[in-house]
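call fold(seq) -> tokens
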Amino acid sequence: MRRLVALTALLALGACTPPLEPAGQSFPVFFTPNSAALDNGADSAVTAGANFANRYSDKSVVVAGYSAPPGHHYVEPADMDNLRAKAVEAELVADGVNPSRITTRPMGAVQPAVPMSKIEVRRVDIIVGSPTAP
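ret:
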């Protein structure tokens, strides 16, 4: 009976503790082919990333931009990854993220090891506080 009471007390105490802070969070922002425009919900994804970054203002923010690899049904300009990353960075700053916290990394046309959908390669990842950021 004592063990049951102790276990119940321990579980109740565990329920009262706040959740652990996240080690990092990634927010993917998807783009249409040959575009760096924040449309079709991309602006909402950036806002979510900015809100998280503003909540955890002590964490770094990495903006990693990608473009479609050769072999897709279209060919994107060579600097599309950079244009997308810069568009996301500008929106993060407009949403209140301190620009000194942001590192922009154009990753190029990436051919993933595991096949991805066509939209997944046309993206920017906003990575807040992740030690494994690209």
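Residues 2-16 form the longest helix (15 residues).
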